Every structure is written in structure tokens, then in C-alpha cells.
Amino acid sequence: MDRTKTWDQELAKLESKNSEAQLGGGEDRLQRQRDMGKMTARERIDYILDPDSFTELNMLAEHQCRDFGMDKKKFVGDGVVTGYGTMDGRRVYIYSEDDTVLGGSTGKVHGAKIHYILRLAREHMVPVIGLNDSAGARIQEGMDNVYGITGMFFQNTLNSGIVPQIAAIMGACTGGAAYSAALCDFIVQVEKTSHMFITGPAVVKVVTGEEVTFEDLGGAKVHATKSGVSHLTAKDDRECLDLIRRLLSYLPQNNLEKPQKKQTNDPVDRSTTELLEIVPIHKSRTYDMKKVILAIVDDKDFFEIQPGFAKNVVIGFARMGGRTVGIVANNPMILGGCLDIDSSDKAARFVRTCDVFNIPVVTLVDVPGFLPGVHQEHGGIIRHGAKLLHAWTEATVPKISCILRKMYGGAIPAMGVHQIGFDQVFAWPSAEMQMLGAEPSVRILYRRELEAAEDSEAFLQQKIEEYQNLYLTPYHAASLSVIDAVIRPEDSRKRIISALEIMEDKVAENRPFRKHTNIPL
């Protein structure tokens, strides 16, 4: 035992190590990151968590690589800050990668720190937030990267459907790191200062000969509008973290809880007479479905998810009577509201997310059917549309459908009826529901009569009118109990909230044992 040691010396040594960890890659590199318009890894944590609530874990971890001069490139913490704290009083686990340390690259120890946080989040049943800013696998560590990177995928997948996982892309997120983010429930990406891809521009050029910039290959706009990988985008780091805070407010701590109710002064029985002005009764005229959503939800507050991708369907979170609800709505302004490959994927993923976190789903329906065309058929619209049908059937949360103007063909089950598992289905007096529209139905049903008629056009118009009056009204559907009620548009908010209230404690039906369903991916 060294009797010359003192407590002052030991505490000074600890303070020195802690200070070294706080500096990341050094003050110069931290300042360069700020000069780029980015926050540092620790500043991001301090901003998003409640003041003085962060407790760091594994602060003093270091990589153990000795090859390629790595024994001379040691950084306390190994390029990622990990721990837990509170956000608006709610417990969360969090990790924040540090681009100033070896580019935030992921080696064995860096990855192990993240694995640990992901596992603890699952064991303690609290959300986990990943702030990604990593150049990807640390090639100097060779096959140790298999442990560092792949272990993240494993833990993300085990967490899936148990605790909310939110990934922020706040710099580089390349190679395997991109898959870890993609395995989370939501991705928020910062514009201009972040990019996400599996293989970068240099590799793309060598393999395919294509020349592409970082922004055009994996920037926020690309992933928000073309690939659909990102759910939300932000103009800077602070807005990104604010979006995460808002998003988490709609989610529960885990799959055994419901989202917390929020007090509102918006009356549950408020009339929505403005809907008569927003929605034209003539089916050929278009309108903005988002205005319908704002009219019926609490305080006109709607948090749209994936607003730039597959815009023919609108998804997002809102509250009705203080309860969190998921909204899935057709958008007649884009493709007439038709469902297609991308919108089916978008809606199906959102429905499944709502279901695992006990969030009721409300559909607002105005859909002529699935988008026809060779591109859609060859692209697998059958398979992609089936994902949405699968998601609705699998979901056990309360599901409510309100048909505004039309609902045709394969889109009938895809947007919600009892036979696909919906609990309550309403329709406005203007609603039309049928397998086919009036004219094509008449041409099929009266083909021989049309051929024999002296005035085939007059006969056609007569039968179309008869068919519309008999079969295309919500009253026909109501007579067959396809819908529960024909409601006035101004009662839409009141009836939906009433349905949510009666289904507050809905218990899922018993289903046969299985490991999991086999969704048509």
C-alpha cells in the first residue's frame, strides 16, 4: 500500500480524468463544430434534458486498439456520451456521439457503450434517444467493428415495440450506423449539416460511375421526400431536439402504458360547422384534408409525421378529449387521395407504431381506390397494399373510421371497416361507398340491356342515377350495418371522442398463439 497517497491526490486525479472526458477531441475541435452551426455532443444532451438531470455512465471508457497507431490516439469516453436523465420530468436513456473524437466512429468500446444504454432502456422500460453524429465503423479496429456495430442492431431490434426509440441525425450517419437509426421508431434529421447513407459518394462513383454530392445522396430533403427514411426534418440542432421533445410527449414510456392525457379547455362537444365550408360536397372538387384534421382535434394542434413523403396520405399525432390519437387521412389534393405503394408503406408503419404504444387510430376517409398503372403493379402494389391490411388486422387498439365523401374498391378495407377490425365506423350524408363507381358498375351489370337499347346513352344515364340513389348512399351501407351511423359533419369531433371514451379500456380479443405475424414485407 502506498502510504504517500492522499485523498486530495486521488480526487484531483479523478477530476483530471473527468475534465479530459468533457473536452472530447479538444477545445479546438469542439469550437470548429460550433462554427459549423452544430452543437457539441454534450451541449445537445444539456439542451434536451431537464437541467442538472443527466447522469453519465461509462465516462472513462477507452478503446483498446493498438494497431495503426491507435495506441497514440486515446480519448476518454471513446467518442460517445452515454447516460440517463429526465425530459419534462420523464425518465429517458440517451447517447450522443462526438464527431470531434475520431469522427465519432464506432469501434468495439464505443459500440459497447451504446449497447449498454439500449439494453438498460429495455430492462427499465423507458424511452431511449440516440443523437447520431458518426462517420461509421472505425476501420482501424477491423473485425471488432462487428461487435460494435452489429450489437447495436441486435439491441435496437430487441427494444422494438417495447420502448420508444428516437434517432436524431445531427451529422454523419453512414454505413452500419444508418441501420441502427432505421431500426428506431422515428428519425429526425437536421437539414444541411447531416447526411445518412450506406455507401458514400466516393464508393458510388467507383462502383456505378455516378457523381453525387453528400446532400443529394443522403441529405435531409432526400430522406424526407424521396426515400421516406426520415420522419421529420429540422433547420438546426436546437429545432431537432425540440421536435424530439414534442414527439415524445405523444408517446408512453413503454408498451405497457398509455400516453399521458393532457388537460384541454377545448370542449369535447364542440361543433365543427366549419367542415361544411372546408369539404365541398361535389366529389370532383378538392380540398385540404389537414384543415379537416385541425377542425376536429384539440386546440387545432396536429403534429404531422413524414409531411414531405407520400403526401397522398396524411399521418400524425393529435389529441382528442386530452387523449393521444394517431390520425391516418387521405389527401384529395395529391393523386386524388388514391393509395399507392409509398402511401401504403407510410400508413402501415404508422399504424403498427400506434398499436405497439397503445395509441388509438382515427381514419378520415376520402379515397377513390388504389392508384392504377403498370408502374404500381410492377412495383408490387399488391404486396405493399397488403402491408396496410395486415397492419389494421393486427392492431388491437381502438380504431375509428369516418368516411367524408367516398370510399371505393380495395381502399374500403385499407381505410377502415368493421371487417378489417375497426370498432366504430361513421359516414357523412355525402359519403359514397361501393366496390365500383356507378358508371362502371352499370356497364357491367346492364351490358346486354345497353347493347339492346334503342337509346343506349339515355338508358345508361337512367341506370347510373338509379344505381347512385340505391347503392352509393351511406344509408345503403347503414342498412347492412357496414357503418354504425350516418352523422352530420358538425358532429364529427363529438362522435369520435365519444367512441374513444367508451373504448378507453378496450381489451384485445384472444388470438391463437404464434411467435409473430408474417407481414408481407
Please characterize this protein's 3D structure:
By secondary structure, this protein is of the alpha/beta class. The chain is built from 21 helices and 16 strands. Helix 4 (108-124) runs parallel beside helix 5. A hairpin with a 2-residue loop joins strand 2 (80-87) and strand 3 (90-97). The protein is elongated. The chain has three domains: 17-249, 2-enoyl-CoA Hydratase, Chain A, domain 1, CATH 3.90.226; 275-435 and 473-502, 2-enoyl-CoA Hydratase, Chain A, domain 1, CATH 3.90.226; 438-471, no CATH class. It is 39% helix and 18% strand. The strands form two sheets. Strands 1, 2, 3, 4, 5, 6, 7 and 8 form an eight-stranded mixed sheet that branches.
